[in-house]
Amino acid sequence: LFLFWGGRAPRCPPQPRRAQVRRPRVDAMDITPSNDKEQLSLQEGINAKLVQSGERERLKQLLRERLVECGWRDELKEQCKRIVKERGFENISTDELADEITPVGRATVPDAVKAEIMHSIRKFLDA
User: Fold this and answer.
1) Cα(93)–Cα(83) distance, rounded to whole angstroms?
2) In 3D, which of 78, 54, 70, 52 has the Cα closest to residue 115?
3) Full-prediction pTM beyond 0.70?
4) Distances 94 to 11, 65, 78, 102, 103 between C-alpha atoms, Å
5) Left (φ > 0), alpha (ψ -120 to 50) or beta: where does 71 sit?
6) How many of the other CB atoms lie within 10 Å of CB of 12?
7) 5: closest CA among 95, 110, 118?
8) HSE-up (13 A, CA, CB side) for residue 117
């Protein structure tokens, strides 16, 4: 999978360390919705709150910036070019390319970027 990175996953530039917040340990059963319907409702509620406040757009912009900074976007672009070259421009549709590259893109988002976005969401929800 990491052949287009020369055998290594991309690394984001180091971020300044933030003070670690000690949170009480919570049993997973206490916070896990009991069924898919509750999970969907929870996700919808969080998304609605993010959209209404404008925080969702700010988070999307932050995500774009971080992915560009760590080279993820350029690497994914190169992967797309390679796929089109292998199959031929006339033999692949945009939808087929998106279907093939989406799992790769999701799997290669650096953990540091994921952690920063999740931290921002938690901080927003705690406020």
Assistant:
1) 11
2) 70
3) no
4) 28, 24, 15, 12, 15
5) left
6) 16
7) 110
8) 19
123 is written with which tokens?
């901080």
For residues 113 and 67, the answer to whether their CB atoms sit within 8 Å is yes
Q: What is the pLDDT along the chain (127 residues), one digit of tens a residue?
A: 334 444 444 455 555 555 554 544 444 444 556 677 787 788 899 999 999 999 999 999 999 999 999 999 999 999 999 999 999 999 999 999 999 999 999 999 999 999 999 999 999 998 8
Torsion of CA 67, 20, 16, 50, to 10 degrees: 40
Map residue 121 onto helix, strand or coil: helix
Distance CA 85, CA 53 (A): 43
